[in-house]
Amino acid sequence: MFTVPAELRFLAKQYPAKFYGAFFRAVTKTLLKLFRTRLKATPGLMLVLHTWTRELGFHPHLHLLATAGGLALDGTGIVPSGKKYLFPVHMMGKVFRAKMLYALGALQKKGAFPGLPEEFYATRMAAVSAMPWVVYAKKSFRHSSHVVAWPATPTGSASPTPGSRRPPRTGSRSPPSRAGPSRSIQSNSFTA
Questions:
Q1: Which candidate in 13, 42, 81, 185 could, as Cys together with 159 as Cys, close a disulfide (CB 3.0–4.6 Å)?
Q2: Rounded CA gap, 56 and 53, in Å?
Q3: pTM, full prediction
């Protein structure tokens, strides 16, 4: 899961199209860079935007599934990741921070944030540039059936537990509550 510091959430509220576009691109570029430089592979990725916490507090963050490895850059086959983890989360946080701040800076230079005082923007950027950014990752799903079920699992129900031995139950499920999201699915990598 990738999230931005609270000091940047005002951009998501005031300029959602620009902010979320930059957010998706920064996360995608972060992962592509790490896969290409460290594994010499192109991954499979699926990103899902959540904007609220269980308590209905505004908190934009991206959940994702990433393959545990990828297609070799030279086209020779599949490159597996290590068994322990894909990449250290502190490394992903540093790369993501750089990519997101660059994307927001480019938007600011283009005038994408009209009405935003330059001094206010500069103060916020200076503050978030110095702080660590949160990236959270869980263990891989044990079975590919969990991965297939993940996008169809309503956010209000329990998600497949990484490492569990049984696939999630199938059958009819009630749609997510209109009152707002209640539970998020954490980011995962998988081995199919």
A1: 185
A2: 5
A3: 0.74
Say how far apart CA 10 and CA 115 lie, in whole Å.
Answer: 13
List the helix and strand counts (H, then E) for the chain: 5, 7
pLDDT 10s digits, 122-146: 999 999 999 999 898 877 776 667 6
For 167, the 3-state DSSP assignment is: coil
DSSP state of 30: H
One-letter amino acid for residue 157 of the chain: S
Give the domain extent around 19: 2-190
Closest by CA to 140, choosing from 158, 168, 164, 170, is: 164
Q: How far apart are CA 92 and CA 26, in angstroms?
A: 11
Number of separate domains in the chain: 1
Residue-wise pLDDT tens digits, 17-51:
999 999 999 999 999 999 999 999 999 888 888 88
Which residues, in sequence order, are CB contacts of 12 under 8 Å at separation 6+? 4, 19, 20, 23, 51, 58, 60
Q: How far, in Å, CA of 71 to CA of 44, rounded?
A: 9
